Amino acid sequence: MSEGEGPAPAFTPLRRAIFSLLALGFLACAPNPPPVWAPAPAGPPGKPQLRRGMNLGNALDAPTEGAWGVVLDESDFSRIHEAGFDHIRLPVRFNAHADAAPPYAIRAEFFRRVDWAVVQALKNDMAIVLDLHHYEEIMEQPEAHRARFVGIWKQIAEHYQSAPDAVVFELLNEPHDKLFAPTWNSILLDALRAVRATNPTRPVILEGVDWGSAKSLRDSLAVPKDPNLIASFHMYQPILFTHQGAPWMGPEYKTLGVRFPGPPPAPLAPVPSASAVSWVRGWFERYNREPAATNPSGPSALTEQFDMVSSFAAAHPMPIYMGEFGSVDGADIESRAAWTRATRIEAERRGFGWAYWDDGASCAVYDRKQRAWVPELKDALLK
Ligand code: BGC
User: Fold this and answer.
1) What spacing in Å lies between the alpha carbon of 39 and ligand 1's midpoint?
2) Model-level pTM?
3) Which of these, 236, 372, 331, 325, lies nearest to 53 by C-alpha position?
4) pLDDT digits (tens, 9 = 90+) for 115-173
């Protein structure tokens, strides 16, 4: 309707006053108005494929950005795009920037920083996965955090409702600890409903408990009926290889010098804190003895995981995504490259998209101090 057509709106002074109050009330209740996406970059068109991606970790998933040594820069996004990756997985600790009490308001300033990252990805023609990462409180006390988790997702969903489909949501990174499958399956459904209220068709990623393991995906994730879901798993097996010496792991992971593929040229004795644990002791016995084909640090350790995911895939016709895989910097580079290549190729052979963990943190494919890619790992991912 253009000006002059039809009756003039009956805005009596009283109505006008009510309208103004309502408008003010709306603004007051909307501390984080959604960004206007047009003419902001649209990113890749259509549903994102999420084929080859990079985790930009230890930045917005740290308690505050920079606390873990990574501050994101525009050049990170262009560099990753130019290398040949098609998406970013961005771990974000929204829970550290949201109120403890209803409506669990997420700080506008933090949203602005995430918006900036989203725009950087889209500007570089990449999709971006916003992954709620390190919500440790919900792992400890799932029911006490159900409403807050859902409230946080309600806000994220409202905030990005007009963003292109290239902005993908991932409900929770690596559910673990007391977040067992029945509780997780029910909490994720509540969060998904909150998302769907404003984002009916946006791609949403789900993973199972036990740190997003392949086994939990196959055995215990209850997949809601929804045509726009993506199933994810994380792949860090064999973990005594990928996490050797990682400071955040327990004493059984302290043996350094584990190779991929085994067996090693000379037997490797696990450190006392590792051999004190029976499964670890047994693993090292096999690692030192068995030929490559059956070695627990060999291709069969990968196939075992991927077969579980393939079983899930056979039962659930939906895209599958390996949202994290990587090996710590403490392992030798030749083994890391061999493991990364074998894992990446196996995922691609089975039609699973992936995102490497990670760009410049603990399993770095990019040396932030030298401002240079680690060529062996970059090639293992892309060549
Ligand atoms: C964690 C990282 C860790 C990686 C490998 C991620 O989900 O957030 O801190 O380095 O898994 O363990």
Assistant:
1) 35
2) 0.91
3) 325
4) 999 999 999 999 999 999 999 999 999 999 999 999 999 999 999 999 999 999 999 99
Closest residue CA from atom 9 of ligand 1: 58
Q: pLDDT (tens digit, 9 = 90+) per residue, 55-108?
A: 999 999 999 999 999 999 999 999 999 999 999 999 999 999 999 999 999 999
Cβ-Cβ contacts under 8 Å for 150 (sequence gap 6 or more): 187, 190, 191, 194
Q: What is the SS3 assignment for 67-96?
A: CCCCCCCHHHHHHHHHHCCCEEEEEECHHH
55 Cβ below 6 A of ligand 1? no
359 Cβ below 6 A of ligand 1? no
Measure 89 CA to ligand 1 centroid, in angstroms.
Answer: 13
Residue 174 burial class via C-beta count within 10 angstroms: exposed 0-12, middle 13-18, buried 19 and up? buried
**Measured from the CB, is residue 335 less than 6 Å from ligand 1?**
no
Strand partners, 92: 132
Q: Give the β-pairing of 127-132 and 167-170.
A: parallel
Alpha carbons 146 and 116: distance in angstroms, whole number? 28
Q: Is 191 helix (H, G, I), strand (E, B) or coil?
A: helix
Q: Parse the chain into domains and list their residue ranges.
A: 47-238+301-382
- Which residue's C-alpha comes closest to atom 3 of ligand 1? 362
Distance CA(270)–CA(12), nearest Å, equals 83
Cα(271) to ligand 1 centroid in Å equals 23
Question: What are the E-state strand segments in 196-263?
Answer: 204-207, 229-235
Q: Determine the distance separating the centroid of ligand 1 and the alpha carbon of 296, expressed in angstroms.
A: 22
Q: Which fold has domain 47-238+301-382?
A: TIM Barrel (3.20.20)
Taking each continuous run of H as one helix and of E as one strand, the counts in the chain are: 14, 10
* Cα(53) to centroid(ligand 1), Å: 16
Q: Nearest 5 degrees, angle CA 104-CA 109-CA 114?
A: 90
* CA–CA distance, 327 with 325 (Å, rounded to integer): 7
Helix axes 299-315, 333-349, angle to 10 degrees: 30
